[in-house]
Amino acid sequence: MINAKNKMPMPINHYIAMLILRLEWVWIAVMILAFWHHSPPIRDNYIFLLGFIIPIVGARWLIHRRSFTRTPLDILLFIFVIGSIYNFYNAPLSRASYFVLMCRPLLGIFIIWYFAEHVRQHGHFRYLTLMTILLGILIGGIALVASQWDIVNKSSDFAFLLTNLPKLDYKQIMPDMRLSFNVNEIAGALVYFCPFLLAITFKAFIYPDIVTTRFDYMIQLILRWGALLGFILTFSALLFGQSRFALGGVFVGLLIVILFVLPRWKLKLMGILVWGLFLIIEIMIVTQMFPIT
Fold this sequence. Notes:
Blueprint: H1 12-22, H2 24-35, H3 40-44, H4 53-64, H5 74-90, H6 98-122, H7 126-145, H8 159-162, H9 170-173, H10 187-206, H11 214-241, H12 244-261, H13 265-286
Helix pairs in contact: 1-4, 2-6, 7-10, 7-11, 10-11, 10-12, 12-13
């Protein structure tokens, strides 16, 4: 391996470190599949994957002289981890391992580090934005076709729609995984994605990037129509699920997007009017003033 800067052979340890960093996304993808498996015995057998953070941090230190890229979230993540340790060892009911309980949150922290480092090296958020859009479409779509809707108590007003939604036959895809759940179990994720996807939709249509290649044109299309599709899916799932706190949070988030992303007051006013219309309809549904039949 030749170092392009000084034309000298690259040390073997640097070559191995670069290879480890290039395969970091594979490690994360494997952990996502393993840690979100429904069966605890199977999931627990892959806890050792967390240990691969050691060679990855070591490789990054060797190449870039840093363990990870610092972000404003670091202090909050540190407090979260310390709090989780305290809660684990002081909880009235004990579990076999701290890492079994924390494998998913720790995976989330590793993903944050990975994307922060990726953005630092490439100097833009394009790939992170595309990944977030695709993940939002996936979560919104699964929420609509694989949810067990609470039609009796919460979603009765939308029963005529929910009973006709296509259903995902998850047993044919992954027989040993449970893809069927109540949509409100992932309401927090939907509340995050929904305003973000609306903001990307506004940005892609109102502030389009300069397109110079066919690849840039394809990315522009994904940013526009992919984000719009993801917003429709996630907002529909929240609306059909009727989680009161989730809807309250997403309406606040959408209002913030309208006020700070739309450029002119005419557009802001139009956005607020549409937002207010949906808010009034939702209030009437919650209070049973305007039941949908």
